[in-house]
Amino acid sequence: MKPSTSKIVLSIFLSALLLVYMQKELEEINPSMGVESVGNATASLLFSQNFEGSDPLASFHRLELGARHSLNVVERPGGGGKAARYELRPNDPDVKGSRRVETTVVKRKVEKEMWYAFDIYFPADGYVDEENDEVITQWHQSDMGSPSASLRTRRGRITMTVRDEQDEKEKIDLGPVTKNKWLNIVMHMVHSYGSDGLTEIWVDGKQVLSRKGGNLFDGALPKWKIGIYKSRWASEATTVDKRVLYFDNVRVGTAGTTLADMTSETVRSNPVRTKLVEESVHQ
Fold first, then answer.
1. Buried-most residue among 43, 48, 172, 255 (CB within 10 A)?
2. What's the rounded Cα separation, in Å, for the pair 16 and 244?
């Protein structure tokens, strides 16, 4: 028996609904691709990017670039493949109202418990120490002003800045900015406005921070960004005229991910001794 016209129409209608649903599941917008890719993600990772593909920058949720020199995929310093080179200059055009070259790695896929990691390289000639600080990675909530958590550099030191209120912040020193050497940084976050929040950080496999307490404003979960954000350059010059950073092996995991999942080969090839910052409680 041939199917009736009404059954054929119903079948077409249901197929169209399925296509719309699948499109909504891929709503993470990317300026290069139209939908977010998860790079080289595996079963244990939400996102993994080693910059070896044909168009690795397309895997990021959003690129915030002001000039041609802002972000490029280049040979990895020291060899071993490719890496992303970020460069910011004082006279670069404003991006979102300030001086920055940043990539949003993930946004809508962020959950309460997350793992984040990357390899980072500070070139001695492109990252001279100075008094003014800059952000190298941040967790930013929409319409909430300053990031609720961020890694910053200042005077040759790496600092974790954590807030759960706009006018209150805690700065925790994590150690020196090691130049001309790849570092692997892993961050485990239980995003929370309350006392159940958790912030843990490892540098080259050594835990340098375990902090309990709020690490989020009272609002939506944050997006995660990497790169260089130097707000002072939007209003005045400082003692340096450029900031250059290299990133590689960018990874994101959810609850159930392990430290081993987030650790790159950098840890085994480039050990660095670090000292654990004693656990603090902040509510």
1. 48
2. 48
Beta strands (DSSP E) in the chain are 47-49, 62-64, 71-75, 82-88, 100-106, 113-121, 134-140, 149-154, 157-165, 168-176, 182-190, 198-203, 206-213, 223-229, 243-254, 277-282
Please give the Cα distance from 253 to 179 (Å, whole number): 28
**Residue 268: helix, strand or coil by DSSP?**
helix
Q: How do residues 39-78 score in pLDDT, each as one tens digit?
A: 556 667 999 999 998 999 999 999 999 999 999 999 999 9
Q: Give the chain's domains with CATH numbers.
A: 35-282 (2.60.120.200)
Interatomic CA distance for residues 154 and 152, integer angstroms: 7
Predicted pLDDT at 142: 85
What's the CA gap between 98 and 104, in Å, rounded? 16
Give me the chain's average pLDDT, please: 84
Query: 29-42 pLDDT, tens per residue?
Result: 333 332 234 455 66
**Integer Cα distance of 121 and 255 in angstroms:** 28
Structure tokens at 253: 């995991």
**DSSP code at position 210:** E
pTM for the model stands at 0.81
